[in-house]
Design goal:
single chain; about 550 residues; alpha+beta; Pdz3 Domain; 2-enoyl-CoA Hydratase, Chain A, domain 1; 3 domains; six-stranded antiparallel beta sheet
Length: about 550
C-alpha cells in the first residue's frame, strides 16, 4: 500500500521539477531572444557609429553592476592573468604598478628583478614604452610592459619633474608566497605569508620546519595585507597546525551542489606549538579562512584589527572564445558558523550602497572550546592593536595616494644608510601635515561625497541658493574635523608612512627586518607568546 502511494508522489515531484525547469528555461530563452533582437537592431540602425564589441562590453558590465563586485567578466587576457597570478611565476618587469592619467606609475620595484636592475624607483611615472606614448594608447597600458623573457624595451619616465629613459630586460618573476621568515628572540619563529598561490603550503611548511630546526618553540604567522587566493592552500596552511579531519570552512548557497564542507586532510606538522596570527583590514578571503579557522578551533591567538570581510566564493565558468565568467556561487563560514562576508550586496540602502550589519546586531558563536566570538563580517582579533586599524581618514589618505606621494618626497629629500636607526618622528609627522596642505591634497570622505551629491541634486531642484550658505558652513566643519582626525589617528598613519618609506630604501626585506624589532603588532604578539599564562587564558 505504501509503495502504491509513494509512486504517484514521486511522479508528482518529478513533474513539478520538470515544469519548473521548463519554466526557467523558457524565461531564459525569452530574455536572450529579446536581447539578441535589440542588439541587432541597435547595431544596424543607431544614428552614430558603434562597434558591436563596445556595446556588448557595456551591456555585460551593466548586467553585472548591481551584483557583488567579485562577479566579473574575464577576457582572454584576464583569464591568462589569473592563471599566472595563481601559479606564482610570470614574465614581466618585476614591479607592482598603477595606471593613472595615461601614465604607469611604479608602486614598488622588487629587489634584483628587471625594474630594479633598470634603475626604476617607486614614484617613477612611465609615459612612453618603446615608441608608444601612453597618452595615445587606448587599450590597457599595462599590456605594453609584457613580452618574452630576455626581450628589451626602452622606457621613458618622469622622476621628480625630470624626463629620463632606461633600457629594461624582461625576465621571469618568481612571486614568493612567503617572502620573509626569521627566528627572533631566539625561540620565536616569524613567517610572513603574503598570498595564497600554488606554492603557499610548500613555502609555509618549509619555513615552519626550518624555524623549528633553528630552535623556534613559538610561531607568529603574519597575514596582514594578504588579499587571499586559492581555497585549497588556505585549508592546507591551517592543516600545518591542526590535525587531520577538522572542519575549516563550509560554503553555503541556494544551489545545493555548492554547499560543501572543507576539512583538513593531512597529518599536521605541529599541533601544539603556540601560535599567533596577525591580521588587519587588508587581510581578506583565504586569509580570513585561515585566521577564522584557527580562532574557532582555539588553535591561535589573533592579533591586529578586524579583517576585510570578503566571504564570497567565486568560481570561473568557461564561456566562448576563451573568455570566462567569474561568478559568486556561495558564502564562506568559519567552523563555529560565522559568516565571513561583511557587506550585503543583495540588500542595499536608499543610496544603493551595500548594507553592513550594525554592531548591535552581531550574533554570538562559540569556538570549539566554548569561547564567545561574534560575526559581523571579517575576523575580529582576540587582541586589537591601534596601529593595525584603517580608520576612514587613513583609508582616504591611502586611496588618494597621499602617503605614497609623501614617501616619494621623503626619499628624495633624506639620506638613510640603514633601517636600524630609522625613526619617523613627531617633527616628521608635522612635515607630513605640511606636505598635505602644500600639495593641496583633497582627500574626500564618504560624508563629503554624500553631501556633494545632495547639493548637486539641490541645484537640479532649484534649491541651491537657499541652502548653499549652510552647505559651506557644513563643509568647513568637516574640514576641521578631518584635521582633528589626522592627529587622532596619528599612530596608524605614522605606522603606514614608516612602512612606505622603509620599502623605498631597503625593499621588503629591510621593512620586515625593521618590523620584527619595532612594529607594535609584532611586539604585542611577542609579548603574548612570552606570557604563557596569558596565552592560555585567551584561548580558554
Amino acid at each position: 500500500m505504501k509503495r502504491r502511494i509513494l509512486i504517484p508522489i514521486l511522479a508528482l515531484v518529478i513533474l513539478i521539477s520538470t515544469v519548473s525547469f521548463k519554466s526557467d528555461f523558457f524565461e531564459i530563452a525569452k530574455q536572450i531572444e529579446i536581447f539578441t533582437t535589440l542588439f541587432k537592431e541597435l547595431n544596424m540602425n543607431y544614428v552614430d557609429e558603434n562597434t558591436p564589441a563596445t556595446l556588448m562590453d557595456k551591456a555585460i558590465k551593466g548586467m553585472l553592476s548591481d551584483l557583488d563586485p567579485y562577479t566579473v567578466y574575464w577576457t582572454e587576457q584576464d583569464v591568462e592573468d589569473a592563471r599566472i597570478n595563481n601559479s606564482g611565476i610570470y614574465i614581466g618587469i618585476g614591479a607592482s604598478v598603477r595606471t593613472k592619467n595615461d601614465k604607469i606609475i611604479i608602486v614598488e620595484p622588487f629587489k634584483d628583478y628587471p625594474a630594479d636592475k633598470a634603475g626604476l624607483k617607486a614614484g617613477d611615472e612611465i609615459i612612453k614604452v618603446g615608441e608608444i606614448l601612453l597618452s595615445d594608447f587606448k587599450d590597457g597600458a599595462g599590456e605594453l610592459l609584457k613580452g618574452a623573457a630576455g626581450s628589451k624595451i626602452e622606457l621613458t619616465f618622469i622622476r621628480q619633474g625630470k624626463t629620463e629613459t632606461t633600457i629594461l630586460t624582461r625576465g621571469a618573476i618568481d612571486v614568493q608566497a612567503v617572502p620573509f621568515y626569521k627566528l627572533i628572540n631566539t625561540d620565536i619563529g616569524y613567517i610572513v605569508l603574503s598570498k595564497f598561490n600554488r606554492k603557499t603550503t610548500v613555502e609555509t611548511k618549509a619555513a615552519l620546519e626550518d624555524l623549528k630546526s633553528q630552535g623556534a618553540t613559538k610561531i607568529i604567522l603574519d597575514l596582514r595585507g594578504n588579499p587571499g587566493g586559492l581555497l585549497k592552500e588556505a585549508i592546507n596552511v591551517v592543516n600545518l597546525f591542526v590535525p587531520k579531519g577538522e572542519v575549516i570552512t563550509t560554503t553555503k548557497s541556494v544551489i545545493k551542489k555548492y554547499n560543501k564542507t572543507y576539512k583538513t586532510g593531512r597529518k599536521a606538522v605541529d599541533t601544539e606549538i603556540p601560535l599567533v596570527v596577525l591580521v588587519n583590514g587588508r587581510s581578506a578571503s583565504a586569509s580570513e579562512i585561515v585566521s577564522g579557522g584557527l580562532q574557532d578551533l582555539d588553535r591561535a591567538v589573533i592579533i591586529g584589527a578586524r579583517s576585510f570581510g570578503k566571504g564570497l566564493v567565486q568560481r570561473p565558468k568557461k564561456l566562448t572564445y576563451g573568455t570566462q565568467l567569474k561568478v559568486t556561487i556561495s558564502r564562506y563560514y568559519t567552523p563555529s558558523g560565522r559568516c565571513i562576508q561583511a557587506l550585503d550586496y543583495w540588500n542595499r540602502d536608499e543610496n544603493g550602497d551595500p548594507v553592513r550589519v550594525d554592531p548591535k546586531e552581531y550574533n554570538k558563536f562559540k569556538t570549539k572550546g566554548g569561547r564567545i566570538v561574534y560575526d559581523g563580517g571579517g575576523i575580529l582579533p582576540d587582541i586589537e592593536v591601534e596601529t593595525a586599524k584603517f580608520s576612514p581618514i587613513t583609508t582616504a589618505l591611502l586611496k588618494d595616494q597621499a602617503i605614497f606621494d609623501f614617501a616619494t618626497h621623503y626619499y628624495y629629500s633624506h639620506q638613510l644608510s640603514t633601517w636600524s636607526n630609522f625613526i619617523f618622528s613627531e617633527s616628521d609627522f608635522q612635515g607630513f601635515l605640511r606636505f598635505l596642505k602644500k600639495n593641496g591634497f583633497e582627500y574626500e570622505t564618504e560624508t563629503e561625497k554624500k553631501f556633494a551629491e545632495a547639493i548637486s541634486r539641490a541645484d537640479d531642484d532649484k534649491l541651491e541658493k537657499y541652502i548653499i550658505a549652510s552647505y559651506n558652513r557644513l563643509i568647513s566643519s568637516i574640514a576641521a574635523a578631518k584635521e582633528k582626525a589626522l592627529v587622532e589617528k596619528k599612530a596608524e598613519i605614522m605606522s603606514l608612512i614608516s612602512n612606505e618609506i622603509l620599502k623605498r630604501y631597503f625593499y621588503r626585506e629591510g621593512l620586515y627586518e625593521y618590523q620584527v624589532i619595532n612594529n607594535p603588532e609584532i611586539l604585542e604578539a611577542i609579548k603574548v607568546l612570552k606570557d604563557e599564562k596569558k596565552y592560555r587564558r585567551i584561548l580558554k
